[in-house]
Specification:
Length: about 425
């Protein structure tokens, strides 16, 4: 990091403001890190991510010292500066003098926040000495989960499980990999070909990456492919294929994969990864709602709100709302309908979403089966999921939660249902 750390903190401020003020995804704002030294870029991202991951408790802590919210049109970025400073002090445990000085420097550079510099200085000094005591009295798990998600999860999963899900979101997700051969970094085995990295370093620089020995893929995301069964030598349609983990997984299992992806940039990344891993698949740039083909196996990783991936995307709860769930569901259902039309009689279809929301998972399948008597559910067994019966819903579908595999660091929330076309 640069000597003052100011470039990193300026970048973190830009990231945080983009998320909270413009509701932009954090990943879409990462151009703000271009030109920074790697250490500065890493700190900026860590600071912005930590602030968002603990946003509710940090905001409540600030409200203890500043009960009335600052008006953005008068205070500029003062609130975001306070949030970042509080995150440095309470979450990242940065030395008080460094965190407070950095916040003062950020305020000095903002034409509106500069007028609130005395307030920023005083509040952060109080947080440095009294903040932990204030924070200890807060229900941080509840505060870090916005109402729209908390209400949904308590209704669907019950209070205890909802709290376990929300608690899992306070921990940064580990990096899982799907291994193709024996060249991989230091890691622990989870199940099948999935391992969890324990070795530090940039992903691209870890052993076996450049040689194509593995790719990054969360443990839960590997399960829908395994639900298809033996696909060696069989034709498989992989709809909504990006980011490509499932395409590579299918190719590594010996399937004849046709990967359909609408976004050219995302399709390009799939091509790059296939080339790196020396795997083969036919890549088609097309809308999965309209593409026509036939195959004995169809895999659909449908678009959704991705609430099962909040550990990786701590901005998500604060840039989305309940209306987004119902808004995206019709698109996914159209893709399900078209994918089902591709399936040959006797064939198997797996529909998956990285969402915790019923409207995007369970309710889609219930509606589809009601309208299509020629399809039947193929319930999962614990043996198919490496003995993890807790991942199976009462009707036999896959339902993983972020609090599953808790002793190993959790996993993404996924829903998947396996259907067979009877005629």
């Amino acid at each position: 990091m640069s000597s003052s750390g100011l470039p990193a903190r300026k970048a973190a401020l830009a990231l945080l403001s983009g998320v909270l003020r413009k509701a932009k995804p954090l990943d879409a704002l990462l151009d703000e890190l271009k030109g920074l030294e790697p250490r500065d870029a890493g700190f900026a991202r860590a600071l912005a991510s930590s602030t968002l991951r603990h946003f509710g408790e940090l905001d409540a802590t600030l409200r203890h010292f500043v009960p009335k919210a600052l008006a953005p049109h008068k205070a500029g970025a003062a609130t975001e500066i306070l949030l970042l400073g509080a995150a440095e002090l309470l979450i990242l445990k940065v030395a008080a003098h460094a965190a407070v000085d950095a916040a003062n420097r950020l305020a000095s550079a903002d034409p509106k926040a500069v007028h609130f510099k005395p307030l920023i200085n005083a509040v952060l000094r109080k947080i440095a000495t009294e903040g932990e005591a204030v924070r200890a009295k807060l229900d941080t798990v509840r505060l870090n989960t916005p109402d729209w998600l908390w209400m949904r999860w308590t209704l669907q999963y019950g209070q205890k499980t909802a709290r376990a899900i929300a608690s899992a979101h306070l921990l940064e997700a580990p990096i899982d990999i799907c291994v193709k051969d024996t060249a991989f970094p230091e890691s622990i085995a989870l199940f099948g070909n999935t391992r969890r990295i324990t070795q530090e370093g940039r992903v691209e620089e870890l052993p076996g990456f450049a040689q194509g020995g593995w790719w990054v893929q969360d443990a839960a995301a590997t399960l829908p492919v395994l639900m298809l069964g033996d696909v060696r030598g069989k034709r498989v349609m992989d709809l909504c294929a990006a980011p490509g983990g499932k395409t590579m997984q299918l190719a590594a299992l010996g399937a004849e994969v046709t990967a359909v992806e609408l976004d050219p940039a995302r399709a390009g990344r799939i091509r790059e990864n296939l080339a790196r891993t020396n795997l083969t698949a036919t890549l088609v740039e097309a809308d999965a709602r309209d593409f026509k083909a036939s195959a004995p196996f169809v895999l659909i990783d449908a678009p959704c709100t991705a609430t099962g991936t909040i550990r990786r995307h701590p901005d998500l709860p604060w840039i989305k709302q309940a209306g987004d769930v119902t808004a995206r569901a019709p698109l996914a259902y159209e893709i399900l309908e078209n994918g089902a039309a591709m399936l040959e009689p006797g064939g198997v279809l797996v529909f998956a979403v990285c969402s915790l929301e019923r409207e995007e998972g369970e309710e889609q399948i219930e509606a589809f089966l009601s309208a299509h008597p020629e399809f039947a559910r193929m319930p999962l067994t614990a043996d198919e999921l490496f003995g993890h019966a807790e991942w199976i819903s009462p009707v036999g579908d896959l339902r993983t939660l972020p609090c599953h595999l808790s002793e190993q660091g959790g996993m993404d929330g996924f829903y998947a249902s396996r259907l067979k076309r009877m005629a």
